[in-house]
Amino acid sequence: MAMAKTKTQCSEGNKKEITYPCKGCSKEFCLIHLTGHQQILHEELNHIINDYDQFKERINEQKQNPQNDLLIEQINQWERISIEKIQQKAKESKEIVIKHSQTLINDTEIKFNYLTEQIKQTNREDEFNEIDLNYLRNQLMEIIQEFNNPSNISLEQGSKSFINEISILLLEKPKFNKWNQNTITVAGGNGQGQQLNQLYYPHGILIDKKKNIFIADNENNRAVEWKCNAKKAPGSSGVDQLNCPTDVIVDQQSHSIIIAERDNRRVIRWMNEKQQVLIENIDYWGLAMDKNEFLYVSDWKKNEVRRWKIEENNVGIIVASGNEEGDQLNQLNYPGFIFVDEDQSVYVSDIDNHGMMKWNTDAEEGIIVAGGNGQGRNLNQLFSPQGVIVDHLGQIYVADFENDRIMRWCEGKEEGEIVVGGNGRGNQSNQLNCPTGLSFDDEGNLYVVDCWNHRIQKFEIIL
Questions:
Q1: Could you give the number of structural domains in the chain?
Q2: Backbone phi, psi, residue 167, to 5°
Q3: Which domain holds residue 18?
Q4: Are 241 and 220 in contact (CB under 8 A)?
Q5: pLDDT single digits (tens) 360-396
Q6: Which long-range contacts (CB under 8 A, 24 or more apart) does 296-301 make?
């Protein structure tokens, strides 16, 4: 608090005096009321300290005796109630068995006494043969059998428990990852060109389990594999004889590379230095593969996404749109990159509609999950979105091409958030210039195709 030199109205009094301002509540106090105000603040501080000490004591008690936890007490109560129910049920069942057992004994004694008389009579008459003996033996066996294994009583366990089962639910809060904003260039970054340490408007990207980087090097008409921590891509033959490749994926099962060639209008597989045409005569852009090895391809001219079974000669099944271009929920307008999740839902970058669409399995219409509010730089907008990837929490990451940023969107939210980039268009370590493809490695590091800077940027995750 600082001393004031002019007389003003005290907030607690009725006349003007030399007052002192309180920066906390922005009120003016005379000296007398200032002392009282300070006393009130000290009392409030003491309350906070008291609450702090009580909570600290509670934590220490919990450490010393974890059995005092509220959930432990609830479990103990459930245990007591359950045991009481079991004991009561067991008692009732035992009483029924004892009562029935007594009845069985009484009935058996009657039958046994009757058999005893028959045996005595047979013995007295002394005129019996094998038939009589078999009859007596069978009667005795029946009585013994009924006594040892009574047919009208048994124990049955019901399918429904009369005890309420409990379980412990551990609800984890979604972890919203963050990345170092100053990136590391892991491929290219030496200007546009055809050398093995250069890229030329790269598009799609994929990171494998060994952190090797597969890149669709568009204007160089090649697909390159950049080994982890390598300074340049190795030389190759054949895979550098493409025509404007836009996307690349790795088929883990066949250990092959699948590439979409835009200008050759085909999808090829590259394996063991040999090329195989998988699909042709369609205007491809994005590629994806689901857990069942189905191949998904976006067609930017027909404004649709189809699913194909590799090695089967068919025309594919439409899984998104299939209608003429437009901005309705059953339409697309220049579909680009795609992603397929565990449920086979298809995410499509709807480039000219400036949004990201999700098509659930067998859906006739898509859902706008990001953007879709016209082109722009606001947090509820995208501008020509490109690469898309969805993490295990369902968080959607989008390469916002014209806005030079990577956005994260949670389905159902009206706005996204900038996770990297968004610092203006440029070639500094915290800047992007028209990003396209996206990929994560197993550690959660984010890789971005910085297309117009002709490089691949790695954003390291902050743990």
A1: 3
A2: -150, 155
A3: 10-62
A4: no
A5: 999 999 999 999 999 999 999 999 999 999 998 899 9
A6: 296/338, 296/340, 296/346, 297/260, 297/267, 297/338, 298/335, 298/336, 298/337, 298/338, 298/348, 299/335, 300/334, 300/335, 300/336, 300/351
Question: Encoding tokens for residue 440?
Answer: 């994560």
Q: Are 216 and 250 in contact (CB under 8 A)?
A: no
Q: Let me know if residue 175 belongs to a domain.
A: no
133 and 198 housed in the same domain: no
Tell me: do 394 and 245 sit in the same domain. Answer: yes
pLDDT (0 to 100) of residue 187 = 93
Whole-angstrom Cα distance, residue 348 to residue 329?
A: 12
Residues 6+ apart with CB under 8 A from 370: 355, 356, 382, 385, 396, 398, 407, 409, 416
Residue 255 tokens, joined? 């250990």
DSSP for 28-58 reads EE-HHHHHHHHHHHHHHHHHHHHHHHHHHHH
Residue 446 has which token pair? 């984010």
Same domain, 103 and 208: no
Stretch 354-359: mean pLDDT = 96
CA distance 225 to 258: 12
CATH number at residue 442: 2.120.10.30
**Position 73 in a domain:** no
For the record, the structure tokens of 130 come out as 């094998």
The reply to whether 359 and 251 lie within a common domain is yes
Q: Does 38 reside within a domain?
A: yes
Cβ contact 447:205 at 8 Å:
yes
Domain boundary among 109, 144, 167: 167
**Which tens digit of pLDDT belongs to each residue from 162-206?**
677 777 776 666 667 899 998 999 999 999 999 989 999 999 999
Residues 198 and 150 both lie in one domain: no
pLDDT in tens, 43-68: 888 888 888 888 888 777 777 776 66
